[in-house]
Task: structure prediction
Amino acid sequence: MVLKLGISAAAAATIFKAFLSQGVSVNMAHKLVQLTLCLWVFTTLVLPSPSAGLSRITLKKQRLDLKATRIARGILHKFASSDGEVIPLKNYMDAQYYGVIGIGSPPQNFTVIFDTGSSNLWVPSSKCYFSISCYFHSKYKSSRSSTYTKIGKPCEINYGSGSISGFFSQDNVEVGGVVVTDQVFIEATREGSFPTFMLAKFDGILGLGFQEISVGNATPVWYNMLNQGGVREDVFSFWLNRDPSATYGGEIVFGGVDPMHYKGKHTYIPITQKGYWQFDMGDFLIGNHSTGLCVGGCAAIVDSGTSLLAGPTAVVTEINHAIGAEGVVSAECKEVVSQYGDLIWQLLVSGVQPDTVCIQIGLCLFNETHHMSVIKTVIEKENMEEELSVGDKVLCTACQMTVIWIQNQLKQKQTKDRVLNYVNELCKSLPSPMGQSVIDCARISSMPDITFTIADKPFKLTPDQYVVRAGEGIATVCVSGFTALDVPPPRGPLWILGDVFMGVYHTVFDYGNLEIGFAEAA
Result:
């Protein structure tokens, strides 16, 4: 029977051993192999081809062990995937999704984040002597690879959560069943931000952004997969499982889309600027109320290497206030409201342009005072402005947020006293210095939905979807899935849709048509 189905006895034995490795009993493993074969029959013999007619099959309904079914589906993916190269992902606490690649001949295995917010591949080098984090991860040894080519050019990459430096090398890279030859990558000899990389479950990062943001103009792995004919279709797609206890943490499909992991059709929106996977996002709603910030459009990028959702501080603060998240009480914010609130109100009512209000009252010396680099992506080092002291910059920022908040309340025709009281309360919800805020887990059911508008369609996140839980039982801590990030015009305001969003919406990155597609994940 196995041979008739096109599966060899050796493959069946391999499947059987795979089930045993999952801690399944021998009897259950036999049943799971049978289930796998049944599923194989269904996918290869029952489902019609595009040119075939439809057949009606009568099926019997029977209770199945859900855990066994999930394991079977994961094993079946390994043997039966036909649309693209499927790479299974591990999920660590809904914060890190990583998979395995090989570098060299024979391949040396590394766990990597498949990161759409950067474009380089790097792994720790055997020459990384002085960074403690390198001793907690696998290290590439060029002397053990017969296909290694020395380059040696030094380089550095800065991320929002840390930095690495090292030198370029060249070798073969194995991604699933695809071998990319002569791939230029970085051997990291220094990893900054001690806890960030030391505690990470991944060894390195494989960037899936465009070559325009590649350090050293190195050709990204994805480009070479296409150029060398490793995949047939010029798309890749992500499914991220938001159940950290699940055996199968997610998957990335190179060269295709897995129909098992989304519902309905994808909504596509064009890329507006190559570099990041960037597009124009529409209005942003808290509950059913517009924040007003993105009515005219905001730039947004989809970043599989960012755990949370990042947005302008002013809007994230409004979200935190609406969901009851607690950050650091900002004395500067309250000072601006108490001393300048009336004046800001009068200037806005009289028709003064919002972006000039803080300049007119003397709290900002010029328009672009908030220099922030894009989170967790390659950052160009820029000289910070020297005209303002740190304290002045904080007051300027507080003023700019106050203007946004008052302007939004004016649109809702609230009274001045009520607006200033509301704005004063918002000061309490400013995110902590690291941008994150804690939530009372017991309040999740009463929190509002958050809605992004993409391609004129609403993409809603419920509280259960945008709140990140860490720990178990009484030790559980709930954290807002929104973190603060301020990018000045003309690049900003900028939103970064990270794993919190991608876990809810299956995402297709269409390189050929330069567009991104979103559909409800399944």
